[in-house]
Amino acid sequence: MITIALDAMGGDHGVGVTVPAALEALKHQPGLKLILVGQREVIEAELGRHRAAGSDRITLHHASEVVGMDEPPAQVLRNKKDSSMRVAINLVKEGAAQAAVSAGNTGALMATARFVLKTLPGIDRPAIITTLPTMHDHVHVLDLGANVDCTPDQLLQFAIMGSILVTAVEGEARPRVGLLNVGEEDIKGNDTVKKTHELLRSSSLNYAGFVEGDEIYTGDMDVIVCDGFVGNIMLKTSEGLAHMIAHFIKQEFRRNLLTKLSALVALPVLQAFRKRVDPRRYNGATLIGLNGTVIKSHGGADVLAYEHAIMEAVAEVKNNVPARIGQALAAMAAKGEVV
Amino acid sequence: MITIALDAMGGDHGVGVTVPAALEALKHQPGLKLILVGQREVIEAELGRHRAAGSDRITLHHASEVVGMDEPPAQVLRNKKDSSMRVAINLVKEGAAQAAVSAGNTGALMATARFVLKTLPGIDRPAIITTLPTMHDHVHVLDLGANVDCTPDQLLQFAIMGSILVTAVEGEARPRVGLLNVGEEDIKGNDTVKKTHELLRSSSLNYAGFVEGDEIYTGDMDVIVCDGFVGNIMLKTSEGLAHMIAHFIKQEFRRNLLTKLSALVALPVLQAFRKRVDPRRYNGATLIGLNGTVIKSHGGADVLAYEHAIMEAVAEVKNNVPARIGQALAAMAAKGEVV
To answer: Please, what CATH class does the domain formed by B1-120+289-320 belong to?
Structure first.
């Protein structure tokens, strides 16, 4: 049995998304229990709307406060000790749940998770990792915004964590790791990237060298490492570009009666294409490097997307990701590979 | 009359692209003269293939060497003094041409242009700027890879140069300038970005604040500033994602007979869409901040794309971009706005 705590109040849509997504996840995942954390009356009203009540598989845990989407992390940490976000993470700390999922404010979630759960031994700072679709399959990329400045040692830690996550969840024995850079030759890039390149080369990871931006989507890496500044801009740029392309396709098909008719004909194909790049299927980023599993859902996630974030939590709990990262780091430290 | 020197040997396709593109540009731009720089016999053979010969509007300037696409810039600078790239830029220096266009190796082109033409007074290092399509229109972004590490002063210089380019070429009196960051609040980002934010705020530019990655394509800025590491990764990530999306659309339409038939029906719409995001129409990045105009074409550019790079050179020469940047910098220095 796997138990996951949901920050039911988090995200742009709160219980309107988290509660129905929880009910869907329970339908699809027999061995799962969920704890809905948040304001009792709000959650109960939403459960009522779906004609669902608490059961042994879905329980309600009251938390009086809600973290705003724009609240500064330090303020949340200091003042919102009974927030649904904080209490969901406390449940992981106490062992009442094996993972927490939140669609709330990323900065506050990271600060809270780090404060409550602490980082694994050997990890300076947690990172944010997610899956992106590629031409051939998919790739894990980190850090996506938790750390705007990173040392080579931290980037090495990211590579180790990403590598172990892929091994644990996907059974890939030796994931190919790439380091994001502005060129593939050894002389390219800034000092941090060059030093990280050396660290990765002498590590026992399956390091494939520098990769350029286009190889995120067209290459064949399993893990791509970058600092959180670059990673965040890369991810958001991709979201913006995909949004623009979708908008242009729609505009062209809506131009006149003839194009509207051809849209009807092309609809099944367009839907198949859309499904393939549907970002909802990739929702659920992991705050990696903590003593426990915390999954961040996109703030604007809908029911399908949020259910995917819950499923990511299930997969990581099943495969014991934090413990395996801890073990691998200890083994590498014993060999002097990491500090 | 505008005279532009073309590095006829540069790029993946050399004269096979540069010569026919030159002939097309001359057809479309009456007041234009072009100097084809490179190996005489190679260029003459290609001109012959198009039944074109030298005229008063197209002349040939021999240069014995060719810069390889992967040759290290320092080596090119030292050893390839009679390369088509170097000689084309020399022609700008000597006043025989008002701009140079090259599809050659970016690093070598930047190093050569900087060595031969020197930077404008007040500019520490040149940057690479290009136009990208946006949901509403288009945007100029810099730096795209010339400078992997940038100081706040350099980023301010980039903002000034981008702003003046947009004013000069597009007649936009007060271009909106955004600074690429991982969030929009003042507290977000690394030290360099925060310091640049302050410099831009107290400058006389029309600074609109931080923008996130998605706003490159969906926002309404005229100029977006970032360091070359982030800019290069952003640009290449976009190329990779666009390539993947195009690949997926093609795959879905080719899946079976039915989808192939619907592709036929949707063809005009797909072509209209394709034309709209056609990267060839945006080919031609400017090495900005030099005493002279140098345009970098994509290495893999085809005839249409290369012609666009020539047209970008024409627009910048017509509008006197380097001189206007020099004047604006002098005026801002007099007011103590820049160092």
So the answer is: alpha beta
